[in-house]
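haha ok so turns out i had the wrong file open the whole time. this is the CORRECT one, sorry everyone. sequence first:
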Amino acid sequence: MITISKEDYLKAIAEAEAEGQNVIPATLAHWLSVTRPAVTFALKRLKKDGLVSTKSDGRISLTAQGREIAERTIVRHHLIERMLSEVFGMQWYEIHDEAERLEHAVSPAFEKKLVEKLGQKDTCPHGNDLALRSPTQRRKRGLCLLSEAQQGLKYTVVSVYERDRKLLEFFDAEGIRPGVRIAMEARNYDGTISFSVDRHEIRLGAAAAEKAWVRKS
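then structure:
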């Protein structure tokens, strides 16, 4: 039986991989805000069910069956986010947390209805693809982190990290969101970057600038 907890763990492993993280028990404890003993217990069950495997260096990976479940959960999350945004008009910085709670309640029949209502679309309101891509794969598609943007060039924001509500609220207040064009102005001595959005000048620290992917425009 696939429980909500198992879906959460499998999705977290897939998403952490896509963020370029080395997925070990400590990663999952931080990602899911649970204790290390809780992670150890959960991994034992997932291994027993044939959903994950652990390498000799401690890294955790999904089996084919585990990845299938993770991807199915991600699709439901994506559809719920779109429903909350497109049908109910919720703000883009609110919908991730709501979708985290609702994704497990989506039946195959309701999922089909959502697809019929919303249509096919590969990206969520945060710009993230249904097919999770690693940082290497994103760079092969011509993307770079905002923190890597070159002075004097213009870029379009493609996607942002969606698991941090406060970060999303900050981005929203500054006008940083998928589809927005920015003009990169300077890389500052203190490690921040300066750029403009619709003539609004923004100075951003590395921690935030590393949470957005952009493409030259």
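The chain has a mean pLDDT of 94.
again sry for the mixup
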